[in-house]
Design brief:
Elements (H helix, E strand, L loop, with lengths): L15 H17 L6 H8 L3 H8 L2 H25 L4 H18 L1 H12 L7 H24 L8 H22 L2 E4 L1 H9 L18 E4 L3
Antiparallel strand pairs: 1-2
Helix pairs in contact: 1-2, 1-4, 1-6, 3-4, 4-5, 4-7, 5-6, 5-7, 5-8, 5-9, 7-8
Length: 221
């Protein structure tokens, strides 16, 4: 699997102008699609000139990469740090789910753009990076599930199904939030682990998870 060049992680979003361009691009790319959005539309909506966009990002493709690369590395680093902290494996899993939810809550337009890269048509020049990030996220999820296996919470022969169930839940709830207008309420990550994933428990009921406040969608009446 190809590696992402760390040189691509230069922070181009240090100025307010660059941040505004990123916000506008995320909204347009996620709403219209990357290919259907022109540089002219981005700069007009952001109130800047084309040379300004090119100064900060080099090209439209560079702008798309900025929306993907640094945020995904932050997400992966956050999940990695959570797994490395001492704690119960159930809590580690709840924190990992919560990290995905927090990523979406932080900047929904950016999350919709990234979601589209993972599940939609390939974006020019980004397919290899998307594959790298997807692979790393899967590895981290599998690592969390292996922690449950070592603790005797999930039988080894059900680990793959457990990981698939967690991935499905993350995808469902993030998509419901991003595309269906669901509201986020605190505690979903914890409840998913306690109420759903513990269906894989190997003959004992672990203690309830503390901390790891997760969010999930609930609709207004």
């Amino acid at each position: 699997m190809p590696e992402v060049d760390r040189a691509q992680l230069t922070d181009v979003s240090g100025s307010e102008t660059a941040r505004e361009i990123l916000r506008v691009a995320a909204r347009l790319f996620s709403g219209k699609g990357f290919d259907a959005t022109s540089v002219r539309e981005v700069v007009e909506a952001a109130g800047v000139t084309k040379p300004t966009l090119y100064y900060h990002f080099g090209s439209k493709e560079g702008l798309a990469q900025a929306l993907l690369t640094r945020p995904m590395h932050r997400l992966i680093d956050e999940i990695r740090a959570g797994l490395d902290r001492p704690g119960e494996p159930i809590r580690h899993l709840a924190e990992q789910i919560e990290s995905h939810f927090a990523f979406c809550r932080e900047e929904p337009d950016r999350a919709r753009f990234v979601y589209g890269l993972f599940f939609g048509p390939n974006a020019p020049g980004l397919s290899a990076e998307v594959a790298v990030y997807g692979g790393r996220l899967n590895e981290l999820l599998n690592e969390a599930v292996r922690g449950l296996v070592r603790a005797g919470i999930v039988p080894e022969d059900r680990a793959r199904r457990c990981a698939a169930a967690v991935q499905g839940l993350i995808t469902f709830y993030t998509a419901d939030y991003l595309y269906q207008g669901a509201n986020l309420e605190a505690g979903l990550a914890r409840r998913l682990v306690e109420d759903v994933l513990l269906g894989f428990a190997a003959g004992r009921s672990p203690a309830p998870v503390s901390g790891a406040e997760g969010d999930g969608p609930s609709r207004d009446p």
